[in-house]
Amino acid sequence: MSTAEYTAATIDLDHDTPEALLELFTARGWGDGLPLVAPTIDRVAAMLAEASGPPDEVIAILQPRAGVVTRRVVAINAVLAGCAPNTFPVVLSAIRALARPEVNLRGVNATTHPVAPMVIVHGEVVERCGFNAGTGGFGPGNRANATVGRAVRLILLHVAGAVPGSGDASTHGQPAKYTFCAAENLAESPWGGYAATRGVLEPSAVTVHCGEGPHNVHDAEAAGDPALILDKIASSMTTLGMNNAPISQAEFFVVLGPEHARSLAAAGLSREDVSSYLYERARLPAALFRRHFQELAWATWIKIVADDALLPMTGHPDNVRVVVSGGPGKHSFVVPSWGMTRSVTVPVTG
Amino acid sequence: MAITIYAPDSEPRPDHGSLAASPPSLAGLRIAVLDNGKPNAVTVMTRAAETLAARTGATVALVTKKGPGGRSANAAIPCADDIFERIVAEADVVVTGAADCGSCTAYSVYDAISLEKVGLPAVVVTTTKFAPIAATMAADFGMPDVRTLVLPHPFGGTDRDTLWEWADAAAESLEALLLGRTPPPRTGDVTAAPTGVAMTDLLALVEGDGATFELIEVSPAGVVRLRLVIEDASCAECVMPTELLEATALRVLRSTQPGVSAVTIIDPRRP
Q: Which residues, including other chains, have CB under 8 Å from residue B234's CB and lie 6 or more apart?
């Protein structure tokens, strides 16, 4: 076997029951605590049929454990998670994205912060494979959303070694570490698809962003002034406890509900206008940053600003990433970053 | 009915590397201190480097933070490329740290390994509480014998004079590490249990956190069963999680007793 390949190991399970599987996994320190689907030879083969490359070719290494990733290893975990085979390329592509150096998976997994990768699915695969881009997309209830996010987490546990207490030091953990996946609502986006803004023009794409759970922003739009929506979002971006505060390269993902998006577009705002407004308005006095943080990973220009100046919560308007998702209702949400990580958008490929 | 399933994990393939060749002497060599900005890290490391220089005829050529241009430091990422290049150009050996938290231990070890791979002996400065994690990271990253200097914990919040005392006391060990020699043994009695298991190194994993081990048995197959006793209830969560403790204890015991095959710990924190 060449070093560019890995052959997955097999285990004989005495009883083909969910209980026996869960008992085995628990004894070995595997799994996410929830019941699993047995990764039999047939089920894994059905998953692999949806991707065209060699099943045992090493396609990535995931830190901190340096576990090898092959299509078969991803397929095993996709079966465990309960994925339907047609969503397999989405899981595979999300893992390829997380293995990119700019994600800093070693840091994302090892930290005491509760960071979890958020997976957003874009394009034609959303409807074809039954992802939910509308009401309740972030949970619960949709098989594609729930299982693709879960498969990603199982791979981080089993392959990357992000096990709580050893490779994952997160103080509290958080619910998004079970699953955190939804879809862009392209039909409701006034500004076209998000992936193209990252230079990805293929029909289907997936974005990964490593950060906190969603911070909801509710604006009932009673006054009919779209600036108030953005001011509330900006308020949600200016808390001292988020890692964005001391780290100016860190991004914000702003997930606009369709109604908020429509109101902003009706006021003539482009996606870039939304980012620029939030960059301008999400600010705190420099003195406050300096008092709260000893080591600041700031862009150089920020460091020489006077104490009474208002500083942005991120170093550049482009770091405010805007995506439309969700159903009817006057809600949007913000996902702050873990900090020393960058989001990645890649095409969905097999 | 029995079925065959795949295992969900995969083989770790860390990028294996070997330590750089150690110099025969430090006289005339240039020491760099690579600082990740953790509280008091630069204080203790610079003192250790200066004491070492005075003792051996080396010089402290460079003290720098690890961020771009040396203007900042972020403990949760690798050393910036420009600083790395500067160290390679201006130094012969490196002292780096501090490895006294989760991601900063991962990246201090990572930086040290990167330096060793380009020929510079590099010592990771860690504390008693994080030495086992540094050892795990070094093994995971493919260079288990990374040179590691273990100082008392914590650096943050400790006064300068005490930090300097610790640094001065460690000069001999630091020299030994950079010259590729085994550091001098820790002082204190070795307590052998009736079955011959050396307890001193094991106890060091937990005694700083108010806990101790009791040896239950050593099986003929070399399985060591221990009971973890937490003497100070407020320190329970400081003690390493069971799985990590077992893996580290196994490594510690095996280094002197290759016959140890496994370690099982009965942990009062678990039902």
A: B210
